[in-house]
Amino acid sequence: MRRAGAGRRVPAGVLLGIVLVIGAIALIVSRVGVAPGTDVVMQAGDDGAAAAGRVATGPARAGEGFFQRLGGMWGATARVEQLERENRDLQQWRELAQRLAERNARYEELLRMPEDAFGEGADIENSIAAQLVLDSGGPFTRTLVANAGADHGVEVGYIAVNENGLIGRVVSVGRRSSRVLMLDDYNSRIPVMGEASRVRAVLAGQATRPPELITHPYQLQAPRMDFIVGAQSLREGERVITSGDGGLFPRGIPVGLAQRQNDGSWRVALAAAQRPIDFVRIIPYVGVIAPESEPVQTEGPPLAAGSAVAVIGRQTMAPPPTTPSTVAPPPVPRPRPQQPAPQQQPTPQPANATPPAAQQPAQRRPQQQQQEPAPPAEQPAQEPDE
Amino acid sequence: MSLFGLRAPSRRALRAWGFALAVASVILPALPLGPLFAQPPLPLAVLWAAYGWAAEDESGWRAPLALTVLGLIHDQLAGGPYGLFVLIYLSAYLIGRVAAVAMSAPNLVSLWGGFIVTALLTIGIVAGVERLLAPIAVTPYAEAALITAILFPLVRPLYMAGSAGQRQGARR
Fold first, then answer.
1. Domain carrying residue B32
2. Domain holding B61: CATH number?
3. In A, which residues are within 8 Å of B129 by CB distance?
4. Do A244 and A265 fall into the same domain?
5. DSSP letter string over A146-199?
6. Does A28 touch chain B (CB under 8 A)?
7. CA B77 from centroid of its chain's CA atoms
8. What backbone torsions phi and psi does residue B115 show, to the nearest 5 degrees?
9. Contact: B64, A49; criterion CB under 8 Å
10. pTM above 0.90, yes or no
C-alpha cells in the first residue's frame, strides 16, 4: 500500500541497468580510435576466447571425426575390396619393377664390359644383348637358349660372352631365339692358350662326368685341356684366353684359369662360371677369310717371265710404273644383323664339315674346330623377348 | 496443467532453458560450426532474455549484471567494440521495463509487439552508435534483430509467463 504523495520508487534493477548503460556508452567512447591491432585487452581476450574455443570445440571435432568414421563404415566393405584389388595390382607392379631393375643392372654390367673382353677383331658395335631363357635340359648336351634370334640379327657362329668371359658359340638360330653351345659341352673344342706362357691347347668339353645336382642354373663344369703344346710351361692358375687359331673365335677372350689335376691333366676353371649365366652379349665375328675354292684369273705375266723377282739382281733401277697386273678381290662384307637370316633347320654335321653356303655367312672360314651338336629337329618354342 | 499425463515444466526450469539459450546464442556464432550458426541467421536470444527478464520484474541486480556479462562476452567473441552489446542488451532491458509497466493487460500480441518495438529501438541505438561513436555495420545486426523479433512467440514461455497474473511487474 503506497502512501499518498510518496514518489514512485525506482527499482534497483532499473537503476543498475541505467548505470550500466552509461558505463557501456563510456566504454564504447573510451575504445573509439583504438586500432584492433593495438588493443591489448582485446588481444588478451581473444587468446582466452581461442583457448576456450579449442576446449569447447574439442568434443565437437572429436565427434565430427567419429561421425565421419561412422559414415565411412557404410562403404567399408567396398573400400576394403578396392584396396585389396589395388594392393594386388601394386604387388604385381612391384615385382615387375624389381625384375626390370635387376635386368637393367645386368644390362649395365654387360655394357660396361671392357673391349679387350671381346677379343681382337670382334664387332662390338653390332653385339646383341640377350637373356638366356632355357637350359638344354638333358645330360648329353650343354647348351642354352637365348631370347635373340634371326630377327635380332643373330647368326650361327656368333660368340656368346658375358662380363666374366667366354660362354660359348651360337650353333643354331631361330627367328627369335638362338642356341648357344657352351664350353663344357662334349662337342666343344676351343683353341686356347695361356696368356703368359703362350702355351697352346684345345679346350675340350667333357661328358664323362655324371650329371651333378646343380643348384644354380647354367652352371658350367670345368672342361679339360687337350693337345697341350709345351705343357711343362703352363702354370697353375694361369689365365687362359682364346688363341684365335682356326678363326672361329677372336683372340684374347678370357676363358678361365688353368688348374692342374692330380692325374697330371689340366682343366680350366671357366671364368663364366663365377656366377649363374643369365644375360649374354652375342658378338658377330668373322675370322680369317678362307682362300677361294678356284684360283683367281690374273692378267699379269707369269711370275717366272716378267716379275720383278726374276730380274732382281740385274736391275739397278726400279721399273717404271705399270698398270696393276692383278685384280684385287672385292671385300667381303661382314654379316650384318639387319640381314634376315633364312629359317634354318640345321642337320647334324660331322666334324670339320663345311656348313651350307646359304646358312653360313662365315662360310669362308677355315675348318671349324668346334664341332656343333646335333640341333633339335624343331626350332625352340620358347616365348620371345622374355 | 497436464497434457496426456505430462506435467508442465516449472517456471524455474523454463527460465534455466532460456538462460542456456541466451548463452548459446552468444557462444555459438564464435565457434567454427558453419554459416548456419552465424549471426544472422542465428537470433539474438539475449534480447529475448532482456525483454523477458524485464517483464518478469527482475528488479534485483542479477538481470542487469547477467546482461552486462553476456554483452561483454559477446563483444569479445564478436570482436566488436567493448560495450556495444552491453548497451544493446541493457537498452532492451530498460525498454522492456517501460513496456511491462505500460501494458495493463498484456497478451501474446502485445508482448510480441512490444518486443518488436524493443528490437527496432535497439537497431536505432546501434545506428546511433554507428553514426556517433564507432564505425560498425548496422545491417547485419538489423537482420539478426528482425529474425529475433519474428521468432519471439516461439520462445516466449522460456522468458516470461503466459498470463499477466504471473508477472509481478505488470500493472494490475
1. 9-166
2. 1.10.1760
3. 28
4. yes
5. ES--GGGT--TT-EEE-SSSEEEEEEEE-SS-EEEEETTSTT-EEEEEETTT--
6. yes
7. 18
8. -70, -35
9. no
10. no
Interface contact A13-B71, CB threshold 8 A: no
Q: Count up the domains in chain B and report the number.
A: 1
Residue B32 forms contact with A (CB below 8 Å)? yes
CB atoms within 10 A of CB A259: 16
Q: Residue A265's domain spans which residues?
A: 115-283
Residue B3 within any structural domain of the chain: no
Q: What is the pLDDT along chain A (386 residues), one digit of tens a residue?
A: 444 445 567 777 778 888 888 888 888 888 777 766 667 777 777 777 777 777 777 776 777 777 777 777 777 888 889 999 999 999 999 999 998 988 888 777 777 777 777 777 777 778 888 888 776 555 566 778 888 888 888 988 899 988 888 888 888 888 888 888 888 877 788 888 888 888 888 888 875 553 343 334 455 667 777 767 776 778 888 899 998 888 888 888 888 888 888 877 788 888 887 777 778 889 887 666 666 677 666 665 555 544 444 444 444 444 455 444 444 444 444 454 444 444 444 444 433 333 333 333 333 343 444 444 444 434 443 444 43
**B59–A28 CB contact, under 8 Å:** no
Q: Is position A142 within any domain?
A: yes
Q: Do B86 and A31 touch (CB under 8 A)?
A: no
Judged by a CB distance cut-off of 8 A, whether residue B64 touches chain A is yes
Sorted by sequence, the CB contacts under 8 Å of residue A178 that are 6+ apart come out as: A130, A145, A146, A148, A149, A154, A158, A170, A172, A282
Residues A248 and A129 in one domain: yes
Q: Are residues A200 and A220 in the same domain?
A: yes
Q: Give the end of a domain, one of A58, A91, A111.
A: A111
Q: Given an 8 Å threshold on Cβ–Cβ distance, is B76 in contact with A11?
A: no
* CATH code of the domain covering residue A246: 2.40.10.340
Taking CA–CA distances from A36, the nearest residue in chain B reads: B79
